[in-house]
UniProtKB/TrEMBL annotation:
Protein origin, superkingdom: Bacteria
Matches recorded under PROSITE patterns: HTH_MARR_1, HTH_MARR_2
Protein name: MarR family transcriptional regulator
Domain called HTH marR-type: residue spans: 4-141
Keyword line: DNA-binding, Transcription, Transcription regulation
PANTHER family: TRANSCRIPTIONAL REGULATOR, MARR, TRANSCRIPTIONAL REPRESSOR OF EMRAB OPERON
A Pfam entry, by short name: MarR_2
InterPro entries documented for this protein: HTH_MarR-typ, Tscrpt_reg_MarR-type_CS, WH-like_DNA-bd_sf, WH_DNA-bd_sf
Length: 145
């Protein structure tokens, strides 16, 4: 079996190329710590300032398992991007709160993500992109079943 041309291989290769693009871009001292899931998690947190967010919400949003989410939360807290406080509703859970430091840097993150998206989607018609996103959604649904 030749791996090139198979769906799984092509998705993996694209993921690697995106990772390399992210690594070579200069984000500044604080933002350089925002590799992969940390940036996505902060984006999710900044879009949901009006609700209480817990680790289980990050697990669901980022499609990650509990141990991965736990390490992610620990790393983000260590880097000063979030704080955690015991929930007033349920003492077993810790609420995740984005810090001012993270909020101040979100414009840089958003600019970076926009640049990445522009780079990824250049020369691809809007209709093809919509179809691709729909197809990716179906692929994810198939693999989760």
């Amino acid at each position: 079996m030749k791996p090139h041309g198979t769906l799984g291989f092509e998705i993996r290769e694209l993921s690697i190329l995106i990772g390399r693009f992210i690594e070579k871009e200069e984000l500044g001292t604080d933002l350089a710590k925002l590799k992969g899931p940390q940036a996505w998690a902060l984006g999710f947190l900044s879009e949901n300032l009006d609700r209480e967010i817990y680790q289980k919400d990050l697990e669901k949003e980022l499609s990650i398992r509990k141990p991965t989410a736990s390490r992610l939360v620990d790393r983000m807290e260590k880097n000063g991007f979030i704080t955690t406080v015991v929930s007033a509703k349920d003492k077993r859970f810790k609420r995740i709160i984005i810090t001012e430091k993270a909020l101040e840097n979100m414009k840089k993150v958003e600019k970076f993500v926009t640049n990445l998206e522009d780079r990824l989607t250049q020369n691809i018609p809007e209709e093809e992109l919509r179809s691709f996103i729909d197809t990716i959604g179906k692929l994810k649904k198939n693999i989760q079943s």
